[in-house]
Amino acid sequence: MASPTARALALLFLAACGDSSSDANETEEWPAAASGKTHQEFSSVAVDALATPPTANDCITDVTSGEKKFTCEGITYLVLVHPQCLEKQCGVIFDIHGATMSGLQMRDNTLLNEIAPQAGYIYVNPSKVDANTGGTWQLTNDPPKIGRALDKVIAAYHPNPKRIHVTGFSQGGFTTLWFLQNKNAVLASAAPFAGALEQPEWANDAWQPRVPMLIVNGRTDTASQIGNSDMMVDAFVKGFALTGGEQVAGDAGYSWKKWTGAGNMELGYIVHEYGGQALLAGHCIPGGTDLSGAPNNFGLNATTCSTGTNPFSWGDLVLKWFIEHPKS
């Protein structure tokens, strides 16, 4: 598929934001992929008609289709709304960047902007500064702000409540874990990538409802270290009384193990062997186009994995996982 996994500087994850210069309508042709990457074909999950048309609010001020940029509590949000989401119940994916990254740079790593809207998801990149400038999250105050922005998106677009998902890399992975701890009732599933900054003391019987999660970490990651990631996964397995742990997928470049438990809980754990991140080795995302010299990394470290053979494409993989894990 595409190039290796990226985990860059101290939990990087930045959301992209763009312009809303032209309003789209139901007949608008959605832009083709600009990266030149070949993706899987995904059928749209937007099936049921909207009972209530999208409604603007104090944060989401334009509910037409296309690419939008909003500012909520000082954080910029780049929002992609496919025309089908004005007529049908789409899902929502928040994709959160890591430290020093930009929103456009995060998009270049996952390429979810090329596949998620057509698959029936409103795709949102929170961005600490703006779409073009790298920024670092304040991990005490910013995750709750992003959580409130998700509430605003839900209030505006009336999405399918069974298809609300969050993913993020590095600091974005940590923020995804914050969502799992504090807004799990809203989430269908989540995918924290390279976010093992602390151990989850909330992993116990009191954590209800259960939310399937797919955790990813690089074996040579020097920011989200593999030992901390292993301990975090062990805490989830023990805290939620999960069983299993067998490998369900993989090759020479990665392994994927799976556990299950009560409350339709599923825990997936991917460890990849890819590298190439200039300062943090395996702190990288596989399958993107954010390589050295790429136009959207703004002089910061490129965070797409650049070493390894036959890397999986993270954007394709996580979208498929979200599609297969709606809220039960």
Q: Would you tell me the structural class of the helices and strands?
A: alpha/beta
Mean pLDDT: 89
Strand content: 15-25%
Radius of gyration equals 18 Å
What separation lies between the terminal Cα atoms? 31 Å
| Count, helices | 5
Mass-distribution shape: globular
Main beta-sheet strand count, sense and barrel state: 11 strands, mixed
Q: Tell me the number of strands.
A: 11
* SSE ordering: EEEEHEHEHEEHEEEH
**Percentage of residues in helical conformation:** 10-25%
| Unreliable stretches | 1-27
What's the helix and strand layout?
Elements: E1 12-13, E2 66-72, E3 75-81, E4 91-98, H1 103-110, E5 121-127, H2 142-157, E6 164-169, H3 171-182, E7 189-193, E8 213-218, H4 226-239, E9 243-250, E10 254-261, E11 265-272, H5 314-324
Parallel strand pairs: 4-5, 4-6, 6-7, 7-8, 8-11
Antiparallel strand pairs: 1-4, 2-3, 3-5, 9-10, 10-11
